Every structure is written in C-alpha cells, then in structure tokens.
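User: We ran a pulldown and think these components assemble together. Before we commit to crystallization trials, I'd like a predicted model of the whole complex to look at. Sequences follow.
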Amino acid sequence: MKDSSTLKSKIYTVSELNLEIRKSFEEGYPDIWVEGEVSNFYFHDKKHMYFDLKDESSKIKVVMFHGSNKNLLFNIEEGLHILINGYISVYEKRGEYQIVAVDARPVGKGSLILAFEQLKEKLEKKGYFDLIYKKNIPILPRRIGVATSIGGAVIRDIILVLKHRFENFHLIVRDVNVQGATSSDEICEAIDDLCQYGVDVIILARGGGSLEDLWAFNTEKLAERIFNCPVPLISAIGHETDYTISDFVADKRAATPSVAGQLVILNKTEAMENLKRINKRISSLIISKIAMLKKEINFLIKKRMFIKPETLLNKFNQAASEFSSKLIENMKKLIRTRRGKISGYRQLMDKKNIFKKIYIYKMVTRNIDTRMISNMKNYLNLSKSKLKLMLESLREKNPVAVMDRGFAIIYKAEEDKSIRSINEVNVNQKIRIMLRDGILNAKIFDKMYRKLKLGIKNEN
Amino acid sequence: MKIEKMSFEESIKKLEEIVKELEDENISLEESMEKFEMGIKLSSNCLKKLNEAEGKIEELTRSEDGKLVTRELDLEKEN
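Assistant: Here's a predicted model for the assembly, 539 residues in total across the polymer chains.
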C-alpha cells in the first residue's frame, strides 16, 4: 500500500469537497426550469417549503424559502404538477444537492385559476358558501351602502337603476380601489366602515375585467370579512360570466352592478300599486260584508213585527186581556149559575127536610166547585201552550239577535216608532238608540245623505 | 306588535293575512270592522315606510380626526 503522502492528487476535507461541488453546481446550473410532480411536501413552520419533484423514474429535492414562496398565489400541494425556476445548490451539511426554487407555476392552467380553485374548495369545506349562513336582503333598505370606485361607470350604473326603481333612495358610497395590490385590504376596510356607519345592506361592486383585474375579490381575507359581515351583502363583480370568491361568500350574487341595483330595493311604483290593490280588496270585502248583512236585515224588516216592535207587545197585551176577560166572564157565569141554583135550593128547602136539603146543597156546591176548578185549569193550560208558541216564534225573529251582530234600532225620543230614514228626524232632535244591552239617548248634530253601499269609501 | 314598529315586510305580510281573514264569510261584522281598520293602519304604515328614505347620495369618508363622516356626492362634478 502506498503512503498517502506519495499521492499526487489533492486531498480534500469533506467540507472542502462539498463546498467545491456546491460552487460548481451553482455556476453550472444558475437558472434552470424543471417540471415534475410534487411529493413529500413539507411546509416548515409555514415558512420554508421542502419537497421532491419527480417523474416516472427519478426525483430531485427542492427547497423554496419563505422569501420566494410568500408571493405564490396558489398553494403547492402533494401531487400537483408544477414548473419550477431556480438553481442547483448543495446542502453541505448533508452533502445533498437540491434545487433552490425562486418561482413556481402550475402546469396545465394558470396560477390564478388554480389559486381560485384551491381557495374556493377550502372555503367550501369550511362552510362559507352554505345557504344557512346567507342573510336575507331587505326589500326596503333605508340606507344602501356601496363599496366601489367612484371614478368608474359602475356607481353611475347602479344609481341609474335605483332612480328608476325608487326615487327617494338613500345611498352611502364608500370610495375604494378595486384593483391593485392593496385593493383587497381596502375593500375589507370599506366593508367595516359601512357597517360601522350603519347601512341596511352593502353592495360590493366592480366592473368587468380579467381574472387578474378581479383578483382583489378572490382573497381569503376578503372572503372572511364578507362571511363575518353583520350586514347583508350583495356581490356584484364584473360581467355575468365572471365569478369571484366574494360572489360565493356573499349573501347574494348580482350578475352585474346594474342587477345589484334591482336586487337591493323594491320597485316603488309596483309596491304602491300592490298596496292600492290590497286596500281596494279589503274595502270591497267590507262593503260586500255590509251589503250581505243589509240584505238579511231587509228580510227581517219585511216581517211586519220588526217595523213596529210594539206590535209584539200588543199581541201579548191582547192575549193577556183576552185571558183575563174570559176569566172574569167565566167567573160571572159561574156565579150566575150558582146564584140561580142557590135560589132554587132555597125554595126546595123546608123545615122538614132541612138536613137532607143541606146535604144535597153541599153535594151540588162541591160538584160545582170541582167543575169550576177543572175548567179554569184547562183554560190556563191552553193559554200557557199558546204563549209558549208565541215566545218561540219571537225568539226566531228576535231583534236582539240582530243587535248582537252590530245593529241598533233608532227611535224618536218622544215616540215609540222606529225611524228608517234620516228624513224622519231633524238636526238637534233627540233620539233613542236601542242596543242589545240598553238604550242610548242621543241628539242629532248632523245629517249626511249617503247610500249604505258607499258607507265605506275607498281612498286612493 | 305595534304597527308603527313593524317593518315594511312584516306589514305587507300581515296585510295579506288580513285580506285572507276578511275573505272568510263567517267572520262577524265587529271582527271584520276591526280587521279592516287594522288593514288601513298597516297600509298607511307601509306607505310611510316607502317615503321614509331620505333620497340622497352621500360619500362616506373619514375626517381628519379619523371619524366616519358623510358628504353629499355629486358624480357629475367628480368627473
């Protein structure tokens, strides 16, 4: 074996060798592009990214430091097919070579689209788009808040639509940049300001543009702000075909800013017409209700007794006086027969047969008494059932039942005749109003001619 | 709930209920008068609400001391 000192070649320390290799790699591959699939992804403390880039048969280590990866819009994740730009270096401590990536982009689609898709998926999983969290947009907001750029056409479009729908709308505009690096943060601030000032609804609006132009509305921060916004929010970004994350999180998406103007408040003319229609309907319902009752009353009035309630009493009086006069007549008749019979008996009486006669007399008298009592009873029974029939028919046609439904009978103060026309009384004349539970004494202070069906007038 | 405190939405909803109730033929005259009166109050409340908004366009900004303030916004002038 030869002594090491006899070797002509240079002897390196490990460190020296690795350092030299590193230098040659860095010089040899200072700016390379490499494409492959991400595996073994590790995001250390959410700062530096470590992963392998591989194809079917080979792989290489990649590191992407925080300074480079913080600008990535999309997330690098396991299995993602990406293109990396960077240089080859050596991690001398372990003697491992690796790509130090300075930039990365997805293969097959743009970074923005991928970033959009990734954020959308993430927020969807978190439930940010769930319908249960969507607040109702008020149909009649007193103050409408808009966060948009006042330099653009968008605010003018919204105002134009609002002018057509609701002349006295109250709009609070919060001017904000809707494009550029800081716009997303500014929009978050604008939402906060509008909430703090106090509006009933907020419109986030921006005109159309590329995905990049609309990027401010695709950030996680804004999504969170919208999700936690206590005021109902309408997202009106770009054209009908443009979708942003804010559209998904918002309580309502308007295809365009003009549509937002339509969604944010009701059409006043239509609302007024609807109110008129309802007013007409309730008025006509009450009028027909009254007409129906009037008809019913007319029917009752046609029954004579309702014209003069006193006729009812007359009938009773008549029945009562009939009853009493019959009673008196019967009594008189009985007394007459009795008297006649008594005088007859007197003649029959003599001293001889006095006891016998007295006996006969007693018998006859008793007989008469019994007959009289049973006659009286019969008559009373008959009268009772007659009265019962009359009471029943009275109950059927009872004016009190009609009064229960809100009707009254009006009499002149000095007369018992009910009045049916305002012509029957004069101003200042006293009247009596009979209600179911009593009588009101009143005085006429005014007279107006009006047909009953016009009694409730529909004010339009 | 007091009618004056009801929102436009609530008032309209209640009005529509009243129409349905009045359509019921069995309702008494007294009840229907009550409903009718309430309907008239509700619809005037709706009308009031429709005219309540102030009808102006304002810009929300912050004053020098950082307070939120509004000022009339004239977009014709802005351009």
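Chain A has 13 helices and 13 strands. That may be worth checking against your pulldown data before setting up trials.

User: Thanks, that helps.
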